[in-house]
């Protein structure tokens, strides 16, 4: 059955009669707690969803109202989970680098790299989020197996940590993170992009 | 007179802002050889219509199609370069991202399109932000050209407008050009007869020389191209360019110098 609900506040919460719960959070990570304000509050899935009291308001099918929002919410949950893992790997890599354990550091960085594509797939969170993840992705790939420096690990860790508490940054805000990364040599540009684009424009450029 | 000042042309601007590797490093090193580096707004205008517009074109097709392969097919049709249809290009694009084999990707075509769309968008906006930062000064503003930043359209594409001067008035350089008739004659004589670009340049110069009272519009201003730099390079400067083949004869004709990075 599709539960019918009545919108109570602007965007963040819904109330059904007197019962409420958080939806959906099948595997919400601890780091998601700070984002409770952004989750949709509706009826508890196992409890009765509708109150006995009959509402006079026009019912809105929740799956219609929150279709797009649910998709974003799923990306957010997944994204936050991955960010907390990423933060952990980078912290471990930093620690290993400080102890002079090159191999251990490299292994943690590799584990971090495995998370970049899944993180990018959470781009429904927003363009700013996607841009930061993409820049880190290209930047590390552009290092081409050269060892990543402690400064670079530190910069990425700070940005990932910031992203995990404030994932909804705007695209313009994300450019600031791009500049921070550029300062430590993590950059998007590479010879493939250059050849791909400028190859088509031969004779067009000045 | 000691040449301690570089008058920076469009090719150097392009190499610094959107190239990478040796070309980028060489251009940046070249700028460091000079105490003073001057970038005319004319170079920014040319760059925006040329290299930056190409990046925006690619971005916008990726935004419109959300498909790597479709975008490349469209680009290949526009530019007539069949090598871009090669699937090897897709393999290269994937390889560049170095995604570990154990990470499964559901839809490569979409994911590649999105990775490169975001990359291009950031390169475009970053390059624009930096255009006035890598030389010691930006000079010779153009009254008829609005140097407006590219901006997002509602559909996710980037709007590069304006890419040209306003066409409702005469080119703002017309008066300065007419005052330099002798120089224009020397430049026109130095232009080789062959080539579409050379022909357009000679025609624009010829119009100024032979018919100074006729209006000089933005199309003719664009046709000046490399000649602009020889005409307006300050006396204490050298023209810094990667295109010595075209710049050297023009500069030499008017007693100026063009040097490579």
General description of the model:
The complex is a heterodimer of chains A (206) and B (261). Chain A has 206 residues and is mostly helical. Chain A has a domain at 82-196. Chain A is built from seven helices and five strands; from the N terminus they run βββββααααααα. In chain A, strands 2-1-5 form a three-stranded antiparallel beta sheet. In chain A, strands 3-4 form a two-stranded antiparallel ribbon. Chain B has a five-stranded parallel beta sheet with strand order 3-2-1-6-7. Classes of the chains: A mainly alpha (206), B alpha/beta (261). Chains A and B meet through α3, α4, α6 and α7 of A and α1, α3, α4, α5 and α6 of B.
Principal-axes shape call of chain B: elongated
Multimer state: heterodimer
Strand content of chain B: 5-15%
- Largest interface by residue count? A-B, 39 and 50 residues
What Rg of chain A do the Cα atoms give?
22 Å
Helix content of chain B: 55-70%
Task: List the secondary-structure elements of chain B in sequence, H or E.
Answer: EHHEHHHHEEEHHHHHEHE
Q: Supply the helix-strand structural class of chain A.
A: mainly alpha
User: Which percent range describes the beta-strand content of chain A?
Assistant: 5-15%
Mean pLDDT of chain A, to the nearest integer, reads: 76
Percent helix of chain A, as a range, is 40-55%
The shape of chain A is globular
Q: Over the alpha carbons, how many angstroms does the gyration radius of chain B reach? A: 21 Å
**Count of extended strands of chain B:** 7
Largest sheet of chain B: 5 strands, parallel
Count of helical stretches of chain A: 7
Query: Which blocks of ≥5 consecutive residues of chain B have pLDDT under 50?
Result: none
Uncertain stretches of 5 or more adjacent residues of chain A = 1-52
Mean pLDDT of chain B: 92
The largest sheet of chain B has its strands arranged as 3-2-1-6-7
How many helices of chain B? 12
């Amino acid at each position: 059955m599709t539960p019918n609900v009545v919108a109570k506040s602007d965007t963040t919460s819904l109330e059904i009669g007197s019962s409420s719960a958080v939806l959906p959070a099948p595997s919400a990570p601890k780091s998601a707690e700070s984002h409770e304000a952004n989750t949709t509050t509706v009826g508890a899935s196992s409890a009765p969803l509708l109150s006995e009291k009959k509402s006079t308001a026009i019912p809105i099918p929740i799956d219609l109202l929150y279709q797009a929002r649910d998709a974003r919410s799923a990306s957010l949950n997944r994204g936050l989970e991955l960010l907390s893992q990423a933060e952990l790997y980078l912290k471990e890599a930093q620690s290993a680098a400080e102890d002079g354990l090159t191999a251990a550091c490299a292994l943690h960085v590799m584990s971090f790299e495995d998370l970049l594509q899944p993180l990018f797939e959470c781009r429904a969170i927003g363009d700013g989020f996607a841009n930061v993840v993409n820049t880190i992705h290209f930047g590390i790939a552009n290092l081409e197996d050269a060892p990543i420096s402690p400064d670079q690990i530190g910069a990425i860790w700070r940005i990932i940590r910031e992203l995990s508490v404030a994932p909804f940054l705007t695209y313009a805000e994300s450019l600031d993170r791009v500049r921070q990364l550029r300062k430590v040599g993590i950059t998007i540009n590479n010879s493939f992009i250059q050849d791909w684009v400028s190859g088509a424009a031969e004779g067009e450029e000045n | 007179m000691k040449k301690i000042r570089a008058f920076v042309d469009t090719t150097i601007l392009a190499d610094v802002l959107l190239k990478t590797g040796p070309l980028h490093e060489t251009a940046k090193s070249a700028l460091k050889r000079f105490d003073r580096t001057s970038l005319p707004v004319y170079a920014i205008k040319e760059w925006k219509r040329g290299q930056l517009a190409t990046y925006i074109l690619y971005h916008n097709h990726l935004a419109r199609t959300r498909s790597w392969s479709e975008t490349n097919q469209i680009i290949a049709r526009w530019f007539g370069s069949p090598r871009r249809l090669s699937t090897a290009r897709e393999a290269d694009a994937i390889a560049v991202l170095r995604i570990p084999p154990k990470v499964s990707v559901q839809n490569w075509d979409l994911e590649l399109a999105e990775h490169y769309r975001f990359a291009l968008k950031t390169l475009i906006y970053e390059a624009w932000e930096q255009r006035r930062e890598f030389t010691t000064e930006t000079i010779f503003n153009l009254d008829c050209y609005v140097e407006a930043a590219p901006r997002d359209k509602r559909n996710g594409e980037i709007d590069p407008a304006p890419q040209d001067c306003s066409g409702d008035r005469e080119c703002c350089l017309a008066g300065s050009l007419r005052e330099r008739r002798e120089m224009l004659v020397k430049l026109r004589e130095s232009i080789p007869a062959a080539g579409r670009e050379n022909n357009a340049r000679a025609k624009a110069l010829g119009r100024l020389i032979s018919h100074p009272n006729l209006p000089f519009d933005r199309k003719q201003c664009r046709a000046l191209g490399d000649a602009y730099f020889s005409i307006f390079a300050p006396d204490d400067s050298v023209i810094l360019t990667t295109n010595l083949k075209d710049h050297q004869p023009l500069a030499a004709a008017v007693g100026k110098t063009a040097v490579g990075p």
